[in-house]
Amino acid sequence: MYHQRNNTMPYGYNNATNVAGATTNNMSNVAGAATNNMANVAGAEANMPNMPQEVSPYQYGCQHPLLQTLQNCEAMCEHTLTCLLYMNDSACRACQIQLLMDCGDICGVAAKFVARNSPCCQVILRACAQICEACACECAKYPDPESQMCAQMCMHCANECKACLR
C-alpha cells in the first residue's frame, strides 16, 4: 500500500540500510573503547592495595559459607526497610533507612564478588564489614523487632566478612 509503483523497495528501505551501517560503525567504536577501558581497569586493578596476587579457585565460590550470610543480610535489610516505610516514625529514621539501603546493596555486590571468586574480594569485603557494622549499630538504637533482628544479622555479617579478611 505504501510501496512506490515502479519495482523499487518500500519507502525508507535505503534509510534503514544507512542507519544499520551507522549503527554497526558506532558499535565498532564502542567495542574499541570498551576494550581500551578494560585494559585501563586491569592496569588499575594490579595497583590496588592488599590485592592477593593469586586466588585459589576454591578459596571463595558458591559453596563458601559467607555467601549465604551475605544474601541473608541483604534480604533482612530489604525486609526491615520495607517495614520501616509503613511505620509512623519513618521520617525520624533517615539515617537508619539510608544505612539499610547501603548495607543491602553492598551485601548483594559482595555476594556476587564471592560467588565469582573475584580477585577484588578482600577490598569489597572490607567495605562490606564497615557498612554492616554501621547499619547494625544504627538498627540497635530502635526497639522494634525488625530493627533488632536486623542489627543482629548485620553484626553477624560484619563479623563473617572480617573473618575472611584474616
Automatic annotation (TrEMBL):
<dbReference type="Pfam" id="PF03860">
    <property type="entry name" value="Csp"/>
</dbReference>
<protein>
    <submittedName>
        <fullName>Four-helix bundle copper-binding protein</fullName>
    </submittedName>
</protein>
<dbReference type="InterPro" id="IPR005560">
    <property type="entry name" value="Csp_YhjQ"/>
</dbReference>
<dbReference type="InterPro" id="IPR044543">
    <property type="entry name" value="YHJQ-like"/>
</dbReference>
